Amino acid sequence: MKGRDQLKRGIQETDEVVQLISFAIGSERFGVEILVIQEIIMMSAITEIPNSPEFVEGVINLRGNIIPVLDLRKRLRLRGVPRVEGFKPGNRILVVEIDENVTGFIVDSVAKVINVSTSRISPPPDIVMAGVQSQYISGVVHLDEGILIILDFRKILSGEEKDALTGVSRLTPAAAEGVSR
Amino acid sequence: MIDTEILDDYSSEARELLDEMDHSLMRLEKEGGVPELLNNVFRAVHCIKGSAQYIGLESSSTLTHGLENLLDRLREGVVRLEPRVMEFLFRAKDLIAALIDEVAQHREERSDISGMMAELEQLIQQTPEAASAEPPQTEAPPSAEAEPEVAEEGVPEAEQAAAAEQVAEIEAYPPGVTQELEAYSETPPEESGAFMDSGLDEEDDALYASLPYVVREYDEELAEADEFEEDLSEPSFGAIVEEEEEFLGTEETEATQVERGDEEPAEVPVAAAGDTLEATVPHLLTISLYLDDFQDGFFRPSEIVPQVLGVVETVRLSYAEMGMFEAASLLEAIENTLAAIDPEVDALPGEQVDELRSLLYELRAYYPESLFPLAERPAEAPGESDVLSAAMEAAAAEAETYLGVDRAAEEEPTEMVPETPFPFPGAGAPGPVEPAADQGPGVTVGVSGPTPAVAAPVGPSLWTPAPGPREHSMLADVDEELLKEFETGFTRGRAQAEVAAGSGALQFSSDLIEAQDVMGEGADREIIEIFMSYGLEILDKLRPLVAKIGEGEFGRDEVDLAAELIRSIRSSSTYMDYQKLASFLDEWYEDTLAASEQLATATPSTFAFMEDNSRKFQSFLGDLQLALSPDAVRPAPVPEAAFETRVPAARQAEIPAPPSAALGGVMARGTEVAEAVAQAQAAAARPVVGKAPEHVPPKSGVAPAAKPPVREPESVAAAAARTSERPTAAGEATSASAASEPMKYADPLLSREAGDGPLVKTMRVDASKVDTLLNQVGELVVNRSYVEQLSLDLKVFHRSLTSIGGVGKKEIQGIKDLALKVGEASIALGRVATDIQEGVMKLRMLPVGQLFNRMPRLIRDLSRRVGKTVNLEVHGADTEVDKRVIEQIYNPLVHLIRNAVDHGIESKEARKVAGKPEEGLIVLRAYSQGNLVSIDVEDDGAGIDTDAVLAKALENRLIEPQESANLSPQEVYNFLFIPGFSTSKSVTRTSGRGVGMDVVKKDVEKINGHIDIESWETVGTRISIKIPLTLAIIQTLLIRSLNHVFAIPLTSVREIVQISPHEITTIEGFEVIKFREETIPVLRINEIFNLKQTYSSKLPRFLVLATAGNRSMGFLVEELIGEQDVVIKPLAEHVFKNRGLAGSTILGDGTIALVLDVTELVEDIISQQRQASILGGTRYTSASSERG
User: Fold this and answer.
1) Is B779 in contact with A64 (Cβ distance < 8 A)?
2) Which end of chain A, C or N, has fewer beta carbons within 10 A?
3) What residue ranges do the domains of chain A occupy?
4) What is the C-alpha separation between B705 and B139, in angstroms, rounded?
5) Rounded Cα distance, B155 and B164, in Å
6) Could you give the CA distance from residue B500 to residue B505 in angstroms, rounded to a whole number?
7) Residue of B nearest to A68 (CA)
């Protein structure tokens, strides 16, 4: 939240420097504001959750906390990026914390942290970029190596994804409260 | 804004109190007006009132206050405990509960209480004769009302505790007058013109809202005046008489004090109570009061017994003199009982007190009715009222003498000190304590006007009331040390205050005294401390501002900030009920605002008042701190004396008196009294203080209250004469109690510091904190099994090393040792982890009694509605279950009880016919059974009519006729759980048997419990709810289906059977299995959960039969892993919205298992099958395609 606001402000007004984590899915390079990332972990055993949307891989045990893991590639429905079946050793899970919800996103690889002056970040284009709908993009940076798409994980987690889930279950799981805890 | 935490505390505490109240009300209804029960109710109401007022919840505090009044009337017997009163009390309790719920939910009170209040008024005033010829000043308001400040601070029992109040006496002297005055000092503008700008501040909700309350209280006063006649004719020794005793006591105190002004100490027989029956009356009252003390348990019996014995002895002697030997023998019986009391006991058992009381009551037979008048009261009443009016006047006299001192102090402050010995007569002053033979002069003088001659000598007595109000509560021995401590405390306060003599700060001294009161109770010292530190904080912020403003460097910001600060501390003082301080601050705030508006034209002198006021406030805080801890160094001494010159005269008028510093609040109050009297007696007495007239509005209730002295001057003399007959014992008591008071005053504080008092054994902790802790403990348990796993791994490693060879023996031995040690460590860790787990679990456990306590009321209401009488028995209320179980089980339990009352228990006629007692019986029973807690609801009704159930089942085509003959009763009962199933011919408002039983079952299963029904026709029904002890950790059966591990809650596992695949058949496209004549649907977990199919060579070998409701399902399982306790963690809700999963859990090896929600699964399957059967032949394909 805070990071994002800062980012927004940065884009609009001043010439501050933001730190982005750059990662790759297929051949595309993406960036995310460093403050929303809680940690980056290696792939670990994922427990499949039945009846979940396709992009939900399952849950992992992160030091005693059970967190859901989403495949970012599937989530963004990246077109033109060749699908790779199964995960590779280089794959990483970005653990993102938004509104106290901790969620993991599987990416192909994580490159590095880059410092970008906010003036170099341009607003998201109206068109679909690299197969990513513009609503998920908070900005674009032109680097020497190419275009870096800055993703808005809050939007990625909310909105459409909820619609996708309502199709899966017709009722809300009140019973989950019943037995849990 | 009020802290939400405080509100939460308040609401949970209040709910507990309400439960208590409910309980007592139920008993009251059954057992009649037992004083003890009334006291319980009163206590609960009072505590709620205290908190509500502190927080500033207007409706709650008004309502509870009104209830207190009603309860007081009930205790006195003025109002009878009729059914409609009972009904009202119940409804009032419900309304309070509603208000509390509103506060908890919306942070404000929404319900309208006006209807309730109107009804309350009506109840309180329901007296046969309304108007009275009696002078209203003789009214005896219940002390809870007379001492609102005290009561509001949360003193448990205002009535009895009054003994411990410092100023209580001052207030109680002429309750009529003082109270009126108090009312006026808080009276809204329409009542008191002079208070126009001090009482009302539209912006301050708290204060503003309190106005109606005050007005209402005032109205009540008038109402009470009307009632008084009734009060007097009250035949019992109840609270009224107690009040009267206070008057009498007052009189005696007066006597002592006035006596000191008189030069001739009189000779009065010490031992005899007098030779008339009348004269013994006060003694009986005293004894009665002592009995109250016994009951209160404020004092150890050993402390009171000697006192009582003394009084009893006195009375007995005078009986003997009068030849009333029977009465004397009764007293002897009392004496004997008293003497037999073990001095070591901490409190007297209630029965013993009751016994004593009944003995005392018997004595009444020996008195002519005129002394305890009933109907023909007028015959004797004048005498009584004489006494009272004399007391009144005595009080007035005293008040005026205070004034005298006051003026003396103002004129010659330095002389006052040496002339006035230390205020405790019993301690240092060699005050003559024998009562005067002739008190007439003193009293009369007092009435006719202040007499300077009396003034100075009375000085010492001024403090008497402060430390010890009531004679009967004396203590036998006086702690010298303590006394000294207080002596220094007060003298220091005095000295300092005197330095600031004339300072306006003393306007608050009555507040201060009230604060001391409260501390004397030891009740809310903490609150006062908080208030004080807040005050000091505000002051710290204020001071630089004031300085700035004073130097002319003010801007709007500064002034506004100052105003804001003043306002915030004003709100706090309103909560603390420091009325005077609040009105002072209020005014200050208004002035600041006004000044800030004309900022442009302002000069430093415009803000001159700021400096004054802040100094006054500072001085108040100083006094408060001093009062709080006498030894503490006064934080901010204010030596300057030139305050009041700048305070506008108009304001001085509002603040009743600018009394001298030393005698602070006592005098302030006294002055008020004096003023009131002076005002009322317009002709007789000249205005004592110039400002008095405009202080008391002409239309005031004080006037009638104080008029009688003028009207019947001769009664004064008569009263005086009567007073003089009063024996000395009381006089001595006065001094003794005065001396011993300080000890009592300090007692609570002392014991608190020493830590040997009754310490609070429980503490309130946010449930979420416990849950967090529990979660962590769950982690610990998991980690522990990980360590165990590691130690096993180490052993395996050691073995493989050994078998490989090529490793040195030494190294292998080293690894072996290490493996052993790790193993030991993991066991030790396991032990501790288990203990912690159990401990934390226990934190969440609450006695099921909390739940049961709410039921009596329910049963009462229900049984009334259906016209039955039903008794309730509760067993095992202290059985502990998880907090969440208690929350979840409430509704099912209510439902079962409703069923029992409505359908289980027959009508009275039917019961008679069946030869049962007319009253039905419901038994609530809780007990532990291994890991389960069973909660049974039993009734002794007609039992379940299995034939009727069967008939209904057949009618609804739930079974085939040929099957019905073979059904066991248990199977028949199971029909009751089918939604919509009811055998009841008429569905009543309460319930229809069977309707909702499915809900009950579902609710119970939600917390992994289950329900058993047992029933015997014509004998009764027992329904048992069996629930797990705790919900945080559940026992599960771990199974493996393909490569997934699932956990099935063990409570829903019926049995596990080994099967071979060919046993599974298909009916209408659904897989089923025939099992013991039952056809059970079979589910494959991978199918229902749409799991990714991985090839598995294993064939399902086991069928886990799970039950949900009365349905069974079989899960086909390839592998059973075993039983395991797991901590359930919810699945991330922002991603998963799955049906059929209760959550997930981490197993010992760190992998994740999913916990099935069997109930949901079964529901889904049933609905699928239903859909399928609607769709006809295509169902299977559709179902399977649905599964994808």
Assistant:
1) yes
2) N
3) 2-179
4) 9
5) 10
6) 8
7) B1132
Instruction: Give me the percent of chain B exceeding a pLDDT of 70.
Output: 52
Collapsed DSSP state (helix, strand, coil) of residue A132: strand
Q: Which of B533, B752, B523 is nearest to B624 (CA)?
A: B533
- Looking at the DSSP bridge assignments, the partners of residue B1014 are B1022
Q: Residue A92 has what DSSP assignment?
A: E
On whether the CB atoms of residues B491 and B291 are closer than 8 A, the answer is no
On chain B, the residues whose CB falls within 8 A of the CB of A157 are: 1134
CB contact under 8 A, B1136 and A52: yes
A61 and B1089: CB-CB below 8 Å? no
Under the banding of pLDDT at 50, 70 and 90, the label for residue B743 is very low
Mind telling me how many Å the CA of B1006 is from chain A's nearest CA?
Answer: 5
Closest Cα of chain B to A134: distance in Å? Answer: 22
Q: Are B1141 and B1157 in contact (CB under 8 A)?
A: yes
What are the tokens at B442? 């003193």
Residue A180 near chain B (CB below 8 Å): yes
Residue of B nearest to A180 (CA): B1128
Per the DSSP assignment, residues forming a β-bridge with A68 are: A59
**A residues 125-164 closer than 8 Å to B (CB):** 157
Q: Please tell me the distance in Å from B923's CA to the nearest CA on chain A.
A: 28
Out of B1139, B1146, B1159, the one facing A66 most closely (by C-beta) is B1146
In CATH, which of 2.60.40.10, 3.40.30.10, 3.40.50.2300, 2.40.50.180 is domain A2-179?
2.40.50.180
The span from the CA of B153 to the CA of B141, in Å, is 19
In this predicted model, what pLDDT tens digit does every residue of B834-889 receive, in sequence order? 888 778 877 878 888 888 888 888 888 888 888 888 888 889 888 888 887 888 88
Q: Considering only the beta carbons, identify the residue of A61, A172, A176 that sits closest to B1131.
A: A176
Interface of A with B in 99-118 (CB under 8 A): 101-103
Q: What are the φ/ψ torsions at residue B927 (nearest 5 degrees)? A: -155, 160
Report ipTM (2 d.p.).
0.72
- Rounded to whole angstroms, the Cα distance separating B709 from B928 reads 71
For residue B254, give both structure tokens.
């007066």
Looking at residue A141, the DSSP 8-state letter turns out to be: E
8 Å CB contact of B1129 and A66: yes
Q: Is the CA virtual torsion B223, B227, B228, B231 positive or negative?
A: negative
Write the pLDDT tens digit of every residue in B955-986.
777 777 777 777 777 777 877 777 766 655 54
- In this structure, are strands B880-882 and B845-847 parallel, antiparallel, or unpaired? antiparallel
- The residues that bridge with A149 in the sheet, in sequence order, are A30, A140
Q: Return d(Cα A24, Cα A108) in angstroms, integer.
A: 6
Q: In this complex, do B1130 and A176 lie within 8 Å of one another by their Cβ atoms?
A: yes
- Of these ranges, B267-271, B675-679, B1065-1069, B1086-1090, the one predicted with the greatest mean pLDDT is B1065-1069
